[in-house]
Amino acid sequence: MRKTIKEILKEGDSLTGKKIDVKGWVRTRRGNKNVQFVALNDGSTIHNLQIVFDLTKFPEDELKNITTGSSIHVKGDLVASQGAGQSVEVLADELEIYGTAPADYPLQKKGHTMEFLREKAHLRPRTNTFGAILRIRHALAYAVHKFFNDKGFNYFHTPLITASDCEGAGAQFQVTTLPLQDLPKNEDGSVDYSKDFFGKMASLTVSGQLEGELGATALGLIYTFGPTFRAENSNTPRHLSEFWMIEPEMAFYEIEDNMDLAEEFIKYCVSYALEHCYDDIKFLNDHFDKDLIERLNFVVNNDFVRLGYTEGIKILEESGKNFEFPVYWGVDLASEHERYLVEEHFKKPVILTDYPKEIKAFYMKLNDDGKTVRAMDVLFPKIGEIIGGSQREEDYEKLQNRIKEMGLEGMDWYLDTRKYGTVPHSGFGLGFERLVLFVTGMQNIRDVIPFPRYPKACEY
Ligand code: ATP
Ligand code: MN
């Protein structure tokens, strides 16, 4: 029976002496005139299985075709390995070559840079590094669903095409079927969207939150987990144009409950990865980031600091640091400020709360001081903001005033949640790739999603 390499290595001893049937891609082949060793990988684990070919059984000409990158099927006996580096190996008696890989196969044994691999994004999942990242990514996605399901949350599907703009104009990709070279116009020269597919202007979503609130104010506890699109021109190692966001929204939650949930959630996901992907994390730790495992354990085992924005600004002002962007009360913190608080001052993740209302979204609950809102951003080492959330304004009139002040239109459907049986409620958004970035210790968010989209890059 065919087994994956992960199963074979796990069952190890109990399979020795038995016939093994295994399929995969060749990582390396080495050896001499008598014996050849192939390191085989099938994507099920970071570890390779060693296949031993005896040249009295296999002609050298046939073995020459099993080059790096080729795909093969091998049957043979599993035996305890003579060599160091593996406990078991397969003594091949049958070989089938599915596909050879010519010598120009781009992924040769030498270490490639992340930039090089980004250019070969169609093949990079075949590397050890991306195999590890993609398995961790999968485990984290599963952990997200498991966490919320076990707590009684409903997975709520919010639309990807939307006519509402959650965070403010400018960062949305428009969705249209109008002919761009011959746009229908109104008398005043503006585009006549009544002729467009939906009869109005539509875009890809930048957040499912507003629609998520409709779910929470009916089902109680919901979360979304889906693609999110932002057309901001941010060429940073932390921004993608297409990313996945997780947005829980909870009726009857105040901001403290929201913070508790966010902290528990991140710790759960990180622990889940440590428990289920240890080999992959260890590989990334040993090859890229020697402090990775220590940092992950640290986050799991320590309370996050909870700090008001005003206090945070004071700490930054008194730090004596020469920041690139100036610090003053009212400023939207830059990544360097967030990272100073987390990495240098507290040396712990920080949940920063009660930001000035001017720098936050219209739906956040106004504090009694009239100046700050019940926002909460979770700030992480090496990442900066990993979560942004808040308690939502549940007062109909206050929310309506905010909407008017900001000049937003077409929000009646949203205001109705406050008009009919309003409740205190809260929620947050976690960028899934920022979580994967943290858990893998990678430097660039483009390397934790199979097909990254960013300004001027949309391959495949
Ligand atoms: P930032 O200040 O880092 O640009 P933001 O404040 O614009 O983030 P929010 O609107 O609060 O982000 O979105 C919630 C979460 O989604 C963020 O905390 C972050 O984890 C993630 N996120 C936001 N924008 C991006 C992006 N372009 N690529 C990947 N993740 C993102
Ligand atoms: Mn934010």
Structure report:
A hairpin with a 7-residue loop joins strand 2 and strand 3 (49-54). This protein has 13 helices and 16 strands. The mean pLDDT is 95. It is an alpha+beta fold and 460 residues long. The chain starts with a helix and ends in a 20-residue tail after the last helix. The site of manganese (II) ion has 3 residues, from strand 15.
Task: Please supply descriptive tags for the structure shown above.
eight-stranded mixed β-sheet; binds adenosine-5'-triphosphate; single chain; five-stranded mixed β-barrel; binds manganese (II) ion; 31% helix; 460 residues
Class by helix and strand content? alpha+beta
The separation of the N and C termini measures 36 Å
Low-confidence stretches: none
Average residue-wise pLDDT: 95
Which small-molecule species are bound to the chains here? adenosine-5'-triphosphate, manganese (II) ion
Strand content: 15-25%
Strand order of the largest sheet: 6-10-11-16-15-14-13-12
Count of strand segments: 16
- Spatial shape: elongated
Work out the helicity level: 25-40%
Give a short account of the largest sheet: 8 strands, mixed
Rg, nearest Å: 27 Å
The H-and-E topology, N to C, reads as: HEEEHEEHHEEEEHEEHHHEHHEEEHHEH
> Count of DSSP helices?
13
Quick gist of this model?
The chain is α+β, with helices and mostly antiparallel strands and 460 residues long. It has helices at residues 5-11, 60-63, 114-119, 128-150, 209-219, 255-276, 278-287, 292-301, 309-317, 335-346, 396-405, 412-419, 432-440; strands spanning 19-31, 35-41, 49-54, 71-80, 88-99, 154-155, 161-162, 174-175, 202-204, 221-229, 242-251, 305-308, 350-356, 372-380, 384-391, 425-431. Strand 2 and strand 3 (49-54) form a beta hairpin.
